[in-house]
Structure formats: structure tokens, C-alpha cells
Automatic annotation (TrEMBL):
Compartment list: Nucleus
Ranges annotated as spanning the membrane: 1212-1235
Main location as per UniProt: nucleus
Comp. bias intervals (Polar residues): 245-265
Species this chain originates from: Sphaeramia orbicularis
Disordered: region residues: 23-43, 173-203, 243-290
Name assigned to this protein: RNA polymerase II associated protein 1
Family matches, as Pfam families: RPAP1_C (PF08620), RPAP1_N (PF08621), TPR_RPAP1 (PF25766)
Signal sequence extent: none
């Protein structure tokens, strides 16, 4: 028997099985039957039948050439042509085309608009059936329209009435006659009356009713009204009243018309004919006889030509849709602009000027070229103002995010494919405005010459881990890789998470190459394309590689925009920049080279950047046959590109070739233009780029020269005002999928990158002093005056109290300030004058350590090795600090009137021992950070300028700080992750690794030292996170917490935690879903391995305080009631006031029932669990004898407890439960006295 194919079979297996099947002659599972054509006769049918029976496959031999079409083939039947079926035709479409069922006719049903159809009440009659109208009773119409049936006359009367009601709802401007003094009836509609004169009969009945009402007095009217209301159905009365309220305006607003005059807004115009035409004066345009079809007035078309009403704000508190003008300015809702500005249109709210975002998206898909260009230009202006943050105070939400969610990326990408150059140029400018922030680029250029200024973070969005549904339940081998997941994602999903990746996936680079090479657009479009390519290169190293690998892209840029020879342009603003060198193209090469040393080598050797550097830098900028501004910019970018290459140890041979030109430039530095000259900023940037080049060449050559510089202490006075760490400023709006630096307005406000910022000077000064002290250690005391100056001390004090946030908008500036802080701390000598500020320097180092960003791992290693664990910076350890803590503990014990366990040591002795073990503690933490060794080595090469070993000037991805904020708890957390594994809901604890006890001891010693003397350094760690991390002592092993050193240190930390009022256990700890899960694990571990340990018992009792959630107390008295037998912690050992457990009284009825049950059943006894015994007694006692009003369920529970207490046989428990009844105003202390 032949086997069925399997999914794992290869193509060779399938072919082999097919051959076996054909040789076996077995019958196939399915057969193809072809119906013969009846027109061909029976011969063909017989031949087809024979083919089917023989089971053979016939191959038709086709001729080599097509047959001639002359003479023409005979005409075929059109019925047969309708039955022709093609192979690629969709079967569903063919079925729909031949579907004759009624559902095919009724598939699209559009509901008729009934908003203007009048609703009339049915006529009340005593007859069971409607009255029959005979021809003899119905008067004939005298009109000349011919005979009409009764039904036709009724329909005509109905339409006449509907036309009048529609006329009543028309605008006031369309009503040309005055209203009648007597209004028509609102209740009697006359619908049941036959004949065309039903309206007259209705008015007659209405006048008779009014005459009767006038003849009656007010009291008679009210009496008849009451009688009528009592006889009618209340629902019918409500319906009539609601109809009257709809037709009559509210009487709350007084009428503005004098008495005797009828208001056009209050009364309907019953006498206005539906066929009334406006006069010739009312028409916007006077008709002419020569105009065709102008003899008939069409009011609905004339409405479009009327003047627009004045805009007014809607009487609603809801936000209104934002509208913009063509410059991107937001138009207020009530602003009345003239129509000649072109901002009014026939969309929604035509009286309001401006275009909404939705209307601009619709206009960008117009068939009119000018409308598409206008919409794209307006969107570009809106994006530019959104980058500058001009909409933050006026609009709700983020304009950039709204546009991206609406599909702006796809709109611009499709517009780039437009064949009209104007539309393509507008789309390119809008894309440039979306991706590129000119202020960000200018800010990065200004900091390029700083220390580590050429290094920058990749502008990648924050990583969002999303577990695919397809990967759930699969093993690690079966799961798709990241690259496979990216390839399977749609363009929309990729662009939603990362705009740059989405554009690259949509083949943006080949399109830009085509525009540059074939379309050859205007200079502004060329500049936009170069800036967009630069922004893509800043995204990541992979994006820069895609730009390098795009076919013919760099060749076109080098040939057209960085030529080796060119002619001088005829005007300062040429119509075409093709054949002229551009600074934007050189900057693109510089940013591409920053992505890695291999990319830089490709640019220098394969693309031809080396020849361009020689051509541009070998002569003076004034001899380049370019406009002076462009000449300075392109030479500045050339120096920067060379500096980046020298930072890799490349292009150093070019230094020898261009040495005369470089010396000449250095000699001419002092000949700077006048300060008022407009080219001075560009010339200074060029000089800075030259100095950056010389610095990198010097590092590469290994030459260390002493540089002359002066110390400007006054610069420190402005350090705090420009600090990024100390000043948290709001930044313009950004979107997560398109991160930026948010630098608009950086020149006009105080900041680290502002032109008046002292940070570059101070960083250079710090580098110089560090170099000097590295050569001669004895010179460090010469700089004591700088380190002890008031500006430096004030700046360090402000930094030690700051809590900066991490984001793309702040990270690139924070790294520069981190360098300055590190250099200041490294210069601190250990001298008597400096010792009095040693704690401040140590505090600053502790605060700086968790701030350091990726790329600064070497700084973290140096701080840990030299300052953090240096006993000279912990002055409290050798100046009476431990003794002061012991005295404080003694005073605390005297005030609290209780003593701790006699077997425990004081915190002062533990601190004294921790100070002695500081070198061992440092070794412990450096061992646990050994996984960062490779990153430390890479960072060391960059920070020490070991250029031949630098792989890239692009810093690692900004995923977070180098060290977590809770790094002092790292040994505990890592030990828990290694030993505690999940096993069926519990914890299966493996054997502790070698050295675990010593590592935990050192970690607890360091934590105790920080909690007592450096509490500010741990303020970034939430108290609940501290409690969760310390709980790992009990969860990572079954006996680790029983060791003597761990017991002593954990007791000391517990005393500090128990006095912490800010401990909020209702918030989930970082890294955990909820604190309840952690507490459940602690309870399970206590029942399993605690053996009644008092320390573990105190740790479990701490979350049971009254101010925390009742869920934890329910877990103890419900799921883990067995642990009450071994929870023998006394009040003296707990060191927490009992009032924190008993006040206020418990209000959870299920928990009170559990308290009462544990007391009555004997699960909770005084000598087993003294603390919770008093807590349960207090809460049950207060609940039973409470005088507050309560729900019925609570009262029933209270009576049930009293009834059960009455039958208790335990006299002591009976007395304690009736404690509140015995004493008028009992206290917890009195209750404790009787318990003991």
C-alpha cells in the first residue's frame, strides 16, 4: 500500500512516490471529467471518453508559429461568449454575476431619510374599520389636470402638507412673506379628511376650538383640562406635550418682538406657497436671456452662493476640531476671516475658515495638481510648527502622533511616486520636515568638538517586547528569529513601531536615488534628500549600512554633489546645484562614517572620500570658487569627516600630505574676522573642527603634549543654571516611533548646549588637570582651591539631590555632564582640607553611578574601584560614626520602653565591621559585574582615545542606564535567580553555590552602611522595592537566613524598615506584577522551612499592619492558617508599635469572621502567636460592641458572633471577648495586660 506524503518529505521524495504510483497502475483518488462540447459532435466526445478510460496524458503539439488571422474566424454565439470561463477568473465573482436570487437585488438597501417627514397622530374614531370613501361623497377637483383616483388625491394632499412643513423648516432668508397673526393647529392635522380642501377644514375646526376657549373662564379651562387629563392615557399626554415642546420655542427666553407683531422664529408660515420663487433682486447673479436653462430658479443651488454666516463657538464643553491655514497657523474657532484668503470650502462647518487634518488628507488625494501640492505644503508647515512645540498649549494630544496614526507615512511615500515634479517636491519637503529637526542637527554640530562629542546615541525607538501568538508554546529552537519576524510584519506594523524602518521597508532609498539621478530636482529638494539620508544614517548602524549598500546612490551623490572639479556658479543662488560641492553631502559622509570603522574605510577607499578631502582642504576656502558661506561650511564638514576617520586611526597618511596646509591654517587662527561679521560663527566652527582633527591625530600617533590653558573659576557660577541634571525642562512634542533630541530654541534659552554654556571649557579644563595629575601625583594639591570653591561645592550639592529622567531628548546632553562630574570626582585629593567635604564627594559618586549611560561602562568601573568603596570618602567610619549610631539606638530603646533580643548586636557594631570589610565588599560587587567586562573594554578604548581599537563612534542602543538603580541589591537578586526556580507554584531550592554566604553578607553590610549614612543615594529605589529585594534572603535558600552573620545584618535592616512610614505595599514593586504574589511566596516558604524563626516571623508580620491591604491578612488567616502555630514573635522582638496593627478597627467582614473563627476554634492561641492573638482580639472586640450604624449583613454577623460567644466554655477567651463590655473605654495596652 502506498503511503501518504508527509510535510517533512523533500521534493525528491515526492517525485519518487509519484513514480511508484504511476508504475503501480493504481487508480487515482480523484478524476477529472471534461464535459464535451455538443457543437463539436460525438466524435470529440468519444475521443475524450477514450482518453479518460485509457488514463493516459496527451501532450498537444503546438506549431512553432501562430496561425494567420486571415480570413477572419467565424462569429461565435454571444450566449456561448457569456459562458466563457478563464482560469484566473475568481469563482466568487462569477457566481455573483450569474446570481438571480432576490438577495442579489436587495443586497444594498439604503435607508430613506425620514428626518423631514412630518409625523401626524392617527385619527381617533369609534369605528372598527376606516370609513369607506365613495366617489359620490368626494368632491371632484376643478383643476384641469384630469381625473384622479381617491388614492391619488389623498397622496397629493399629503404631499402638499409635507411641502408646507418643509417650507416651515427652511431658513428665514428663504421666507419672503410675513407670518399670519393666527397660527395653525398643532394637534389637529386633518389627515383623515378626504379631498383637497382638508387644510381649510382643519383651520375651521381650529377656529371653532379657539372661540370656545375664549368663551370659557380660566377656572373652567383648568377644570376641563383636569377632566380631560384624567380620561386620557398618560403616555398619550406625554407624547402630545413633547410634540408641542418641539414646535414651540422655550418660553425661558423673552421675545424680542413688540406686542402686535409676529415673530418669524416663533410661528410657522402657513400661507407661504411651496412654489414661491425669490424675486430677481434676491438672486446673487442677475440672469441673462442668452443663458441656457436659466429660466428656472433652483434654490438649493443658490444656497451655495449665499454669504457665509459669522462663525460662532458651539455651546458645548467638548473640544472642537482644529483648523489650520496654509502657513500651519492654528485658526481660533470664532475668528472671522475674509473669503478671498481661500480658507473657506464646502466641507464640514463651511462657515469656519481653515482646513482640518482630515480635510488636508482628503485634499492631498485630489485629481487637481495644485490641490495636492497645497495640501502637502500645508502639512509640512504643520509638522514644522509641531516640532517647535507651538501647539502644546492650544491643542489636546500630540499632533505628530495623530498624523502618524492617520497614515501620514504612507501618504508621503505614495506622493513621492507622483509623476508631477511639484507634487513630488512638496512631498519631499513634508517628509524632510517630519524626519529632520534642523535645531537638533545644529545642536549636534555645535557639540561635535567637545570631549567625546563625535560619539552619539542611535536614534532608535524604545524597544517593546511583544510576544507573538505563533511563538507561544514553542521551544527556543522552533521560535522565529528577530529578522524573520521583521520580514513577516506588514509595512503598517513596522512603521507604527519605527518610522525609519517602515520607510526603508517601503523602498525609500531606491526612490530617492531615482529622483536624484533621473528627475534632477531643484536645489531645495536636493538639500531635503541629503538631510533625510543623514537622519536615516543617524538611526542605527544597520540603517547606515543600507544607505551605503543602496545601488548607485552614493555614486550619484559623489559625482553630482562632491565633484573634484567644478566651475564657479553664476549667482549666489543657482537654479541647479548639480556639479557643485555641497556641505550637506559632506555631512552625510561624516555621519555615515560615524556608524563604524568599516563604513569609514569604505567611504575613504571605495567611494572616493579621500580625494575629496585633499581637494577641499588643500586650498584656502576663498579659493574654492564657491559662495563664502558654502565654502566655510563644506570645509568645516571636511575637517569633521577627517577627524572621525582619524578617530579610527585611518587617513593619517593624509596628515603628512596636507601638513603645510594645516600649519598655515593654524597660523591664521588668530586672524579672526570682526565680531560683528556674519561669517564669524562659521569660521569659529571651522577652527574647532580643525582642533578636533589635530586632537585625534595626536591620539592616534601616541604623542602626549602639554597644552596651555587657563582656569576660569567663574565659569562654575553658571554651571548650575545650565545643568541638564539639575534643571528639568519641558521639551517640544516627540513621538515614540520617531525619537529626536527636542532642541528647538536651544540658542535662546539657558542650557548645556547653548553658546554661553561653560561646560565645554570646564570639561576641557578637567581633562587637562587629570592629565597633569596623571604625570605627577604631587601636583594634585595645587588644585584644592578649585575643588573647595563655593561654585563647585554648590554644583555638587545640587547634583547629589537631583533625580534626572532618561530619554532620547536628554541622554546625549547627560553624557557630557556625566563626563564633567566624573572628572571633578577624579581630581579630589585626600587631604585634611578636603576631608570635611568627603561625604559630599562620596554622595555625588553614588548618585552618578546609576546615571551613567551605555558607552560609559569604564567610568562606572573607575568609580567603583577608586571612590565608591574607598574608606577615605566614608568619613563617618573613622570619626565616631558607629558610636553615634549606638547612642541613637540606646536613646530609642529608652523612649520605647522595651529592649531588643539580647542575642543581637547593635547597628553601630555592624557598621564598624562593615567599614573594615570595604575592600572585600568592593571585590564582591566587581565580581557580580563581571558580565560587563567586554563593554568596559570597549568604553575604555573610546574614553582613553585608543583610536586603532575603536570600532564605532556610534554608542550602544539607549536601553537604559549602565547599572540599575538598585545595584546595591545585585548580589541578592542574582543569587535568587540562580537558586530559586518555580516548581508547581512553590519554590524548589537548590544547593547554594560556593561563596554565596560571603556574597550575601557583604551585600547586607553595604546596604546597612548606605541606609544609615548614605540614605539619599537609595532614594531612587522605592521602599517596597527595597523590601522585595531583601526578601530574597528568605526565598533563595532554606537555611541561609539562619546563618549568624545574615541574622545579625538582616535584624539591623529590619529595624530600619520597621520605622519607615513611607513603605507603601499597595503599589507593585518594580519587576513584579503585584506585592501579593511575593507575599504568597513568603508565606509558603515560612510554612516550609522557617522552624518558627523570629526574624522570618517579623518579616512576615510587617505587611500585616492595618494600613496595608486586607488581602494579605486574608491570606494568613485563610490559606495559611497553619502558620499561626509557629509564629511566636513577641512584641519586643517585633519593634513595631501594636497600634499599627489594631488601629483603626477592621472593616472587612470576611476577615473579621476569620479572626473570630481562629479564636473560637483554637487555631490562634496566645502562647503560639502573641502578636496576632492581640490583633484578632482587638478587632473582634471592637466589631462586636461597635455602636456605628451598619448594613443588615454586618448586623447579622455581629449577632451571630454574640450568640456563639454566649456558649463558649473557655472562660478566659469569654472574658477577653467581652472586654469592651466590662470596661467603658478600654485601650490596647489594658487588653495586653489582661492577655499576659
Amino acid at each position: 500500500m502506498l503511503r501518504r506524503p508527509k510535510p517533512t518529505d523533500s521534493e525528491a521524495d515526492l517525485l519518487r512516490e509519484q513514480e511508484q504510483f504511476l508504475t503501480s497502475g493504481a487508480q487515482s483518488a480523484a478524476s477529472v471529467i471534461r464535459r464535451p462540447d455538443k457543437r463539436r459532435g460525438e466524435a470529440e466526445a468519444a475521443s475524450l471518453h477514450n482518453c479518460k478510460c485509457n488514463g493516459r496524458l496527451f501532450v498537444v503539439d503546438l506549431p512553432d508559429q501562430l496561425p494567420s488571422l486571415t480570413p477572419a474566424p467565424p462569429k461565435k454565439s454571444r450566449f456561448k461568449a457569456n459562458r466563457v470561463k478563464f482560469e484566473d477568473e475568481d469563482a466568487a465573482e462569477r457566481l455573483d454575476r450569474h446570481d438571480t436570487h432576490i438577495s442579489a437585488v436587495l443586497s444594498r438597501i439604503v435607508e430613506r431619510d425620514t428626518s423631514s417627514v412630518p409625523i401626524s397622530l392617527p385619527v381617533f374614531t369609534g369605528l372598527a374599520f376606516p370609513q369607506v370613501h365613495h366617489r359620490s361623497e368626494v368632491p371632484l377637483s376643478s383643476g384641469g389636470g384630469g381625473k384622479k383616483s381617491i388614492f391619488a388625491r389623498q397622496i397629493a394632499a399629503q404631499r402638499l402638507k409635507e411641502g408646507k412643513m418643509l417650507l416651515h423648516c427652511a431658513p428665514r432668508s428663504a421666507q419672503s412673506t410675513e407670518a399670519r397673526e393666527v397660527s395653525g393647529s398643532r394637534l389637529v392635522s386633518g389627515q383623515g379628511l378626504g379631498g383637497p380642501d382638508s387644510t381649510g377644514e382643519t383651520m375651521k375646526i381650529h377656529r371653532e376650538n379657539e372661540e370656545k376657549l375664549r368663551a370659557m373662564s380660566q377656572s373652567e379651562i383648568l377644570e376641563e383640562q383636569k377632566k380631560l387629563l384624567s380620561q386620557l392615557d398618560p403616555r398619550l399626554v406625554d407624547f402630545v406635550r413633547s410634540r408641542k415642546a418641539q414646535s414651540v420655542p422655550s418660553s425661558a427666553s423673552p421675545s424680542k418682538h413688540p406686542q402686535g407683531q409676529s415673530s418669524k422664529e416663533s410661528f410657522p408660515h402657513d400661507n407661504v406657497s411651496r412654489q414661491s420663487e425669490p424675486s430677481e433682486k434676491d438672486l446673487p447673479v442677475k440672469p441673462q436671456k442668452e443663458w441656457v436653462h436659466m429660466d428656472k430658479v433652483e434654490p438649493e443651488k443658490l444656497e451655495w452662493m449665499r454669504d457665509l454666516p459669522a462663525p460662532r463657538r458651539k455651546a458645548t464643553k467638548m473640544a472642537m476640531e482644529a483648523r489650520f491655514d496654509f502657513a500651519g497657523m492654528l485658526i481660533p474657532p470664532t475668528e472671522d476671516l475674509p473669503t478671498h484668503l481661500g480658507l473657506h470650502h464646502h466641507g464640514q462647518e463651511p462657515e469656519r475658515a481653515g482646513y482640518s487634518l482630515q480635510e488636508l488628507f482628503l485634499l492631498s488625494r485630489s485629481q487637481v495638481i495644485q490641490q495636492r501640492s497645497l495640501a502637502l505644503s500645508t502639512l509640512a508647515n504643520i509638522l514644522a510648527k509641531a516640532h517647535n512645540g507651538e501647539y502644546q498649549s492650544a491643542l489636546k494630544g500630540n499632533v505628530m502622533s495623530t498624523l502618524l496614526d492617520a497614515g501620514l507615512i504612507f501618504l508621503l511615500r505614495f506622493a513621492l511616486d507622483d509623476s508631477i515634479e511639484g507634487v513630488m517636491s512638496a512631498a519631499m519637503h513634508a517628509l524632510n520636515t517630519l524626519l529632520v529637526c534642523t535645531e537638533d542637527e545644529a545642536c549636534l554640530d555645535s557639540t561635535f568638538s567637545w570631549f567625546r562629542g563625535m560619539a552619539s546615541f542611535p536614534l532608535l525607538p524604545c524597544a517593546q517586547e511583544e510576544e507573538d501568538e505563533e511563538d507561544e508554546g514553542l521551544g527556543e529552537i522552533m521560535k522565529m528569529t528577530v529578522k524573520e519576524k521583521e520580514e513577516r510584519k506588514s509595512d503598517h506594523d513596522v512603521a507604527r513601531q519605527d518610522v525609519i524602518k517602515g520607510l526603508l521597508k517601503m523602498k525609500l532609498l531606491p526612490r530617492l536615488r531615482y529622483i536624484l539621478e533621473v528627475v534632477r530636482p531643484s536645489p531645495r529638494v536636493v538639500q531635503d534628500i541629503l538631510e533625510v539620508l543623514t537622519r536615516i544614517a543617524r538611526h542605527s548602524s544597520s540603517s547606515a549600512t543600507q544607505v551605503l549598500d543602496c545601488p548607485r546612490l552614493l555614486e550619484v551623490i559623489m559625482t553630482e554633489f562632491l565633484p573634484t572639479s567644478w566651475t564657479a556658479p553664476a549667482s549666489p543662488l543657482p537654479h541647479s546645484v548639480y556639479g557643485l560641492p555641497l556641505a550637506g553631502a559632506m555631512k552625510l559622509l561624516r555621519v555615515l562614517s560615524t556608524s563604524g570603522r568599516h563604513a569609514c574605510a569604505r567611504l575613504l577607499n571605495s567611494v572616493g572620500a579621500r580625494e575629496r578631502l585633499s581637494r577641499l582642504l588643500s586650498v584656502d576656502p576663498s579659493e574654492l570658487l564657491l559662495e563664502p558661506t558654502e565654502a566655510l561650511r563644506i570645509t568645516t564638514e571636511a575637517y569633521r569627516l577627517w577627524a572621525v576617520a582619524a578617530g579610527y586611526g585611518q587617513a593619517c597618511q593624509l596628515y603628512i600630505d596636507l601638513y603645510p596646509a594645516l600649519v598655515k591654517e593654524l597660523q591664521s587662527v588668530h586672524r579672526v574676522l570682526a565680531p560683528s561679521h556674519p561669517l564669524v560663527p562659521l569660521q569659529l566652527q571651522r577652527v574647532l573642527a580643525l582642533l578636533s582633527l589635530l586632537t585625534q591625530v595626536t591620539h592616534t600617533a601616541g604623542c602626549h603634549q602639554e597644552l596651555q590653558a587657563g582656569m576660569l573659576l567663574g565659569a562654575f557660577y553658571s554651571t548650575r543654571s545650565t545643568s541638564v541634571v539639575c534643571n528639568i525642562q519641558s521639551s517640544p512634542e516627540t513621538t515614540p516611533s520617531l525619537p529626536g533630541l527636542a532642541c528647538p530654541g536651544w540658542r535662546d534659552r539657558l542650557g548645556l548646549a547653548a553658546p554661553c554654556s561653560p561646560f565645554p571649557l570646564l570639561t576641557g579644563l578637567g581633562l587637562l588637570l587629570e592629565t597633569i595629575t596623571g604625570i605627577h601625583k604631587g601636583l594634585s594639591h595645587k588644585f584644592t582651591g578649585l575643588l573647595l570653591s563655593e561654585p563647585v561645592i554648590g554644583y555638587l550639592r545640587s547634583c547629589s539631590q537631583a533625580t534626572p529622567t532618561l530619554s532620547h531628548t536628554r541622554a546625549w546632553l547627560l553624557q557630557h555632564e556625566h563626563h564633567l562630574l566624573y572628572l571633578l570626582l577624579r581630581l579630589v585629593p585626600i587631604e585634611p582640607d578636603v576631608v570635611k567635604h568627603a561625604s559630599l564627594y562620596h554622595q555625588s559618586a553614588l548618585v552618578l553611578l546609576p546615571w551613567l549611560l551605555p558607552g560609559s561602562e569604564y567610568l562606572a568601573h573607575e568609580l567603583l574601584s577608586t571612590i565608591i568603596f574607598n574608606k577615605d570618602f566614608i568619613s563617618e567610619g573613622h570619626s565616631g560614626g558607629p558610636e553615634a549610631v549606638e547612642l541613637g539606638e540606646l536613646k530609642l530603646h529608652e523612649d520605647s520602653h522595651h529592649r531588643a533580643s539580647p542575642s543581637l548586636q547593635t547597628v553601630g557594631a555592624l557598621l564598624r565591621e562593615a567599614c573594615v570589610q570595604l575592600p572585600s565588599i568592593r571585590g564582591c560587587f566587581l565580581t557580580h559585574l563581571a558580565h560587563l567586562e567586554s563593554s568596559v573594554l570597549v568604553s575604555r578604548d573610546s574614553l582613553l582615545s585608543r583610536n586603532p581599537w575603536i570600532k564605532s563612534h556610534l554608542l550602544p542602543e539607549l536601553t537604559g542606564p549602565t547599572l540599575p538603580s538598585d545595584w546595591p541589591y545585585l548580589p541578592l537578586v542574582s543569587l535568587y535567580e540562580r537558586t530559586g526556580v518555580s516548581d508547581g507554584g512553590g519554590l524548589a531550592v537548590e544547593e547554594l553555590p560556593v561563596g554565596a554566604l560571603q556574597a550575601v553578607t557583604h551585600c547586607l553590610q553595604w546596604l546597612l552602611l548606605l541606609e544609615v549614612w548614605r540614605e539619599e543615594a537609595l532614594k531612587v529605589v522605592l521602599p517596597v522595592a527595597k523590601f522585595a529585594r531583601l526578601s530574597c534572603v528568605f526565598l533563595c535558600s532554606s537555611d541561609l537566613f539562619l546563618e549568624r552573620p545574615v541574622q545579625r545584618l538582616t535584624w539591623g535592616l529590619f529595624r530600619l524598615k520597621s520605622r519607615l512610614d513611607s513603605l507603601d505595599l499597595n503599589a507593585p514593586p518594580p519587576g513584579l506584577a503585584s506585592f501579593q504574589d511575593l507575599y504568597s511566596a513568603l508565606l509558603a516558604q515560612y510554612e516550609a522551612v522557617s522552624f518558627g524563626d523570629r526574624l522570618f516571623g517579623c518579616w512576615v508580620l510587617l505587611p500585616l499592619q492595618r494600613r496595608y491591604s486586607a488581602a494579605m491578612r486574608l491570606a494568613v488567616f485563610g490559606e495559611h492558617v497553619g502558620m499561626l502555630r509557629s509564629l511566636g514573635v513577641t512584641l519586643q522582638q517585633l519593634s513595631i508599635p501594636i497600634e499599627r496593627f489594631t488601629s483603626p478597627p477592621e472593616d472587612s467582614l470576611p476577615l473579621l469572621r476569620l479572626y473570630f473563627r481562629s479564636l473560637v476554634t483554637g487555631s490562634l492561641k496566645r502562647h503560639w502567636c502573641p502578636v496576632l492573638y492581640i490583633v484578632a482580639l482587638s478587632h473582634v472586640n471592637a466589631f462586636i460592641f461597635s455602636q456605628d450604624a451598619a448594613a443588615q449583613e454586618v448586623e447579622a454577623a455581629r449577632h451571630s458572633m454574640l450568640w456563639k460567644i454566649y456558649y463558649l466554655t473557655d472562660e478566659v477567651l469569654l472574658f477577653l471577648l467581652n472586654f469592651a463590655f466590662t470596661f467603658v473605654s478600654p485601650s490596647v495596652s489594658t487588653l495586653m495586660f489582661y492577655v499576659h
